[in-house]
Amino acid sequence: INLSQPDTIDERAINKKKLTAFTRSENLDLALNSASAIGCTVVNIGSQDLIDGKPHLVLGLLWQIIKVGLFSDIEISRNEALIGLLSDEEELGQLMKLSPEELLLRWVNYHLNNA
């Protein structure tokens, strides 16, 4: 989670030595709470689901964490080249209001149209 959003989890809070079933569960609860804090949808998933390795829950959560990290760089202030995505009748303020998903979709469509 800290790779997607740095300093989300205080590393001192992670149990690292002599892990028991209880401390592993604590670590996973910390990860789930932190995932929720960075914007992941963590509904009906608990530490036991991760321990059991339920593929649809583990992969769904993992994808959300990766997506948060990847989309954190998609903003106009970090990538001024995205200003080129403005349409003729659009103002910069409107473009800046777009979500990272919408900007990415606009970028892909822009390049498809100009290919």
UniProtKB/TrEMBL annotation:
One of its GO terms (molecular function) is actin filament binding. It holds the Pfam family CH. InterPro entries: Actinin_actin-bd_CS, CH_dom, CH_dom_sf, Fimbrin/Plastin. GO terms for biological process: actin filament bundle assembly; actin filament network formation. Residues 1-70 form the Calponin-homology (CH) domain. GO terms for cellular component: actin filament; actin filament bundle; cytoplasm. SUPFAM superfamilies: Calponin-homology domain, CH-domain. Keywords: Actin-binding, Repeat. PANTHER family: FIMBRIN/PLASTIN (PTHR19961), PLASTIN-1 (PTHR19961:SF27). This is Calponin-homology (CH) domain-containing protein. It comes from Micrurus paraensis.
